[in-house]
Amino acid sequence: MKYRTTLILFIIALGLAAAYFFYFQPIMKEKELIADFEKRFFRADTSEIEFLRLDTGQGPITISKSGESWKITKPAEYLPDLGAIDSLFKALAKGRLIKVVGGTEDLDTFEFKTVHVILSLGYSGTIDVLRIAGESPSGAGHYAYSERLGKIFLVDKEFVTAMNLKPLDLREKRLFIFNRKELGRIIIHKENDTVEIEKRNNGWYMVSPFPMKADNDDMNTLVDTLHTQKSEAFIDWKPDLAGLERKISLELNDTNGIALGAYEVYFWGTEWDRGIVAHHPGSSEALRVRRDFWILLNREYSHFAYRNMISINPTKVQKIAFHSGGDIFVLEKRDSLWSYENTQVPMEQILELINSLNSWKAEKLINENRDLGREHFVLEVEYEGSRSRVVVSDFNMDYEISGAMMFAARKGKVKKEKIDYLYARSANLESSAIVRSIDIENILDIVRGLRDG
Q: CA dist 258 to 144, 185, 243, 262, Å?
């Protein structure tokens, strides 16, 4: 009986030992490998990392620690896109290891002859290298081989996608780097004129070609574009490009007159490998940018100028009158109530009209005075003791406008119609103006709606 009990205990012990060696120990070993791998590569703390190198077959790129920040050191020293680098390290921290699938002896089995990404991390004098190969048959992830651990792991696809970067992806691609509050002067020099705009205490003002107030909306668009404009590609600078006829010089200064940056912007061509090229004088590289940037810089000066045809104070205005084609529409305010031909008009409709009038802008300003001739449209706004007036003539100025802008749909309409560009004068503007007939029709549609009520 005693020997039988001993035999049973021996068999149980043998079974436990076998379970440990053949089941629990491999699980524990795999957990240790996974923990070691994640400590090396999937790290949320980047303070110990001294450099990171990525090679995706499109040219290796190395980013190195520079104080508390980062810099690109290979393939050359470039300004880094710190936002892109931050996203890269966040992707490292979020990486997910699925399981251990093999060792060094299995590299051929898992087709490591073709490597898509090589990730190297340097820290505390140590370099860890991870080679990432193809996707698993199940599509669950990619095979990744750690040279230091000598093991092949299956890692999630999102991690691999985040690592599959080109050198361009980590470079600073913005043309200008500045704080919006710092920007004090913008100079756009073209073949026939120079547009110079400066920021004063009460907003932006045009200095050249004519002194006048700048338009807030258009200046916000310009400043936003300058602040965010990025290169689509970096190319080697070719000195013969400097001979291109279509060129715009762009210069930004801060509020103290210190240069924030300057570029020569060239129209190289419409082909896919040309386009718009920006070059900082003295640089060995040029930046290819979107054609929209050229279009914005090439705008005629008045597109940056204040062009509101009227400015109505809703609380002080007493009367608004419209004259068009023999028709007269008069809206008057008495005791805070608005009426048309003694019929009361709801305040919300009046405010809609005033907002439309205040957003009415000239298409273009012109530095010339001509005889108005026959009046096409007249707007009169009266306050207590003063009056403001806009007069639009029948004189057509189509020759001043691009043919591409001759057709548009009226508000609430689908079908496009021919637009006339008419000569106008406004007490709200120092220069004469060109306005669109479609804007006048949109205003009259609102007025007719009030009248027919």
A: 50, 10, 28, 11
